[in-house]
Write a structure and sequence with these properties.
The chain is mainly α. The longest helix is centred in the middle third of the chain and has 28 residues. The chain starts with a helix and ends with a strand.
Length: about 90
Amino acid sequence: MQSSQLSDIMRQIRNGVVSFEDANVTKNKIRMGILSLANEIEETVQNHEDLKNELAIKNESEYKPTIQQFHYGTGDNVGGNKITNP
C-alpha cells in the first residue's frame, strides 16, 4: 500500500499536479506508515519466542559473501584503483 502511494505521489510530482509542500506531507506520511509497520513487526517478534528462535536460526545459516581481490603488477591497490610506483 505504501509503495503504491509513493508511486502515485511521484507520478503527480512528475506531472506537476501537486505542490512541493503537499508532496512532502504525503511522503512524510508514507515514511511514518513504514516506520510504524517496522515497529509493529519488531514488537511482534519480541513478543513471540518461536519467531525470535526462527529468526536466530535463519541469521546463523545466512549466506555470508566473500570478497576476492586479485593484484597484478607492482604498486599498491587503494580503493580498487591501481597506483603504480614510477
